[in-house]
Design brief:
heterodimer; A: 257 residues; mainly alpha; 8 helices; B: 118 residues; Helix Hairpins; 3 helices; 66% helix
């Protein structure tokens, strides 16, 4: 059987590689422009053009959904692939069955949930959900958007597990609905691009009325793209959370290999 | 001593990359290894945000400030924003791989892994 490299040899190799790279890193660091005084031609061009051209005040959203919207489409499908991978890896062994029996470790009892935790989760969950929607809606004006908002929404849903346990999570969060959210979000984003193509415009070119600068519903097509990202990120994270929560359960006898 | 604050961001990024790689090289537990990978990933965030920084620049949001106010680079912020979210799901994917590995082989030690036998 071929033996791998010993840890010591690997460490020596790592140190040698580090010594080889170090002079280059030092050279680059010493020849960078003064920190805080870099020329930023790309960013400055976007800062100058986007408020007038796209009628939105959040430049990060302008980059994500318009100027580099195609890049975000790629990110969307990376997200979809990673979530699909988690689902396939974790479902493979337990089939479609959902046992609600919690897994136990000998010598480690499962203490009952304290009332304080339940109260905080019941109070905090809806507030976090609302805050997530607020952040997701304000993509065009203030620091917000589907990426941040989707993660906050999914985190609010995770409080259901903390407060009401696995049963509560499964009653409230249908995994089929979350799968649909994830897929539909990515599809909605792609559909925005193809809608532009059907209208004889370049891919993802905005064709809807742009609205007034600083208005919550300015930005035209970017609003729909943002909704797609919110659905995809929120749904995707909820699917991933659900899969990991199922791992805390005992595998039903029927699915044991 | 204006050299030190100028070098600091690049030194932090290089240090994060270095300690992360050191952790990956010496790791004896795959969960720890994924933590180290996240540290390596963070070094790129430090680098990107430092490159896009401008002294005295506002955040690239022209809601209360009028358009035209000197602002930092929105490009790097957009890149980091999407990467943080996608990186989290990729970390989840790696953790799922490790769960399966632990079920199949009963170990999460990279040193204990051997090539699959037919």
């Amino acid at each position: 059987m071929p033996r791998g490299m010993t840890p010591r040899a690997r460490l020596v190799l790592f140190a040698l590689a580090g010594l080889c790279v170090l002079p280059g890193v030092m050279h680059v660091a010493l020849h960078m422009p003064q920190f805080g005084a870099h020329p930023l031609p790309y960013g400055d061009a976007i800062n100058a053009a986007a408020p007038g051209e796209r009628h939105l005040t959040n430049m990060v959203s302008a980059v994500n959904f318009d100027y580099r919207g195609f890049n975000t489409l790629g990110e969307e499908f990376m997200l979809l692939c990673a979530v699909t991978g988690v689902t396939v890896l974790l479902r493979g062994q337990r089939g479609e069955g959902r046992s609600a029996e919690p897994g136990v470790t000998p010598g480690r009892p499962i203490p009952p949930r304290s009332d304080g935790v339940v109260l905080i989760c019941h109070l905090g969950g809806p507030v976090i959900l609302l805050f997530g929607l607020y952040v997701a809606l304000h993509a065009m004006t203030t620091p917000g958007g589907g990426f941040q908002g989707g993660v906050i929404i999914a985190s609010g849903a995770l409080l259901l597990f903390l407060g009401d346990g696995y049963d509560g999570w499964h009653r409230m969060i249908r995994s089929e609905a979350m799968d649909a959210c994830e897929g539909a979000g990515a599809a909605l984003y792609a559909a925005c691009g193809f809608a532009s193509v059907l209208l004889d415009l370049p891919f993802l070119q905005d064709f809807l009325p742009l609205g007034a600068l600083g208005d919550l519903f300015s930005g035209g097509l970017m609003l729909i793209e943002n909704a797609g990202v919110t659905l995809a990120v929120g749904g995707g994270f909820a699917v991933v959370f659900g899969k990991f929560l199922e791992e805390t359960r005992i595998i039903p006898e029927a699915y044991k290999p | 001593m204006s050299l030190l604050p100028s070098l600091l961001p690049w030194a932090v990024a290089a240090w994060l990359l270095g300690v992360g790689l050191y952790g990956i090289v010496t790791s004896r537990n795959f969960v720890h290894l994924i933590g180290c990978l996240s540290v390596v990933q963070s070094s790129t965030y430090v680098l990107l945000l430092s490159v896009g920084f401008r002294t005295g620049g506002i955040a690239p949001i022209f809601y209360t400030h009028p358009p035209g106010t000197p602002a930092v680079d929105p490009m790097v912020h957009a890149l980091v924003l999407t990467d943080v979210v996608v990186g989290a799901t990729v970390t989840a994917l790696l953790l799922a791989l490790i769960l399966q590995l632990h079920k199949r082989r009963g170990t999460v030690d990279p040193e204990a892994l051997r090539p699959m036998q037919p």
